Amino acid sequence: MFVIQPPLIMRYFSSSHSRNGDEVFRRFYLSWEDALWHLSSIYDIKPGATIMVPEFFCGNVIEHMQEHGLKVIMYPVDQFLTTSYPILTITLQKIKPDILIIFHPVGITNKLMEHQNKLITLIPKNSLFIEDCVHKVVDHQSVKLLHNRHFLIDSLRKVVPIHGSFLYSKVRIPKIGLVQSISTSPYRLGMMFWWFAMQVNLLLAYISKNPHRRTEYNLIAERKMLRGYELIGKSHLGSPGPIITNKLAEHLVTKNIMVCKVQQFNLYKPIVQLLTRTRLFWLPTMKKSDRKNLRGFPLIIHLSVADTFLQYLRNKGVIIRFELNDSLWSRRQKIVYLPMGIHLNNEDIAYIVSVLSHFLSNIQDKRIN
What we know:
By secondary structure, the chain is an alpha/beta fold. It has helices at residues 32-42, 59-67, 85-95, 116-122, 178-183, 185-207, 211-231, 243-249, 254-276, 303-315, 346-364; strands at residues 25-29, 50-54, 71-75, 99-103, 128-133, 150-154, 165-169, 281-282, 297-301, 334-338.
């Protein structure tokens, strides 16, 4: 049995200090949304401004955008998590958004970025071009930005045991002022309380030798995590991230995490290939180079079997969820991220593979328990 989310263990860190790539600056915020609110205030994005996001996008974030006065326009995403460049160009020419969000789902580099130079010419000169990397393991030194209104925002809590988000930019973004930092402190403390409560239970699950106890701690950690999710983005003003997690982020072993992701992808691959032959499961479009950046192993599921599949795994102690289940995309199919990370060993992955194998056998025998 294993831990569902990365626990705060030393394996994720080293004594060495990471550095940004050339000509790239970064600021640390409490969350992706806090970075967006601060960026919007700096660039004078007013209520009524238009923001374009993909159909595969967090519904809560969309609600918060609307509460901030933004007009949200969604562009289509197909069953393989890709968007047609010609279709998007037509929409961009018609809408002329103030902010364009290009999402890298599950950490997979969006194919639209193959046309990034052209995309930037299709949005107004004063618009913001934002790469959403909340699911991606970001290598600081590899960040490349095209111009002063091109930004990248990640979300560390999705891939490592740290709460906070970095905003990468070609120009130095002003810090959040002292007054704003103080005014957002209750919001920040609330968020960190639930993150800490989650981490306590993740650590208990990590050290426990009892499989039933581990499942209990994982379930409690999941509930604490979801309570924290309810608070994210609730502040009308952007909040800086905690200093301590900012400092910890500078010592992440990013390269080791990436190597681990590739190894674990290869462990999952054989059973997933068998599942896809049933035509009830399939994979997003991705390149081999994407494997190192994945949040988890992405498995897309046909609606006819999705609920049964999820419940089966959770009953076996694989405490995963449908991801972005409140998105428009998820009305047509579901997606789960099979656990990955350096807190998991080969035995953990082997157990998940065995559960998947048993589920496949049940499908083939037409009996799912």
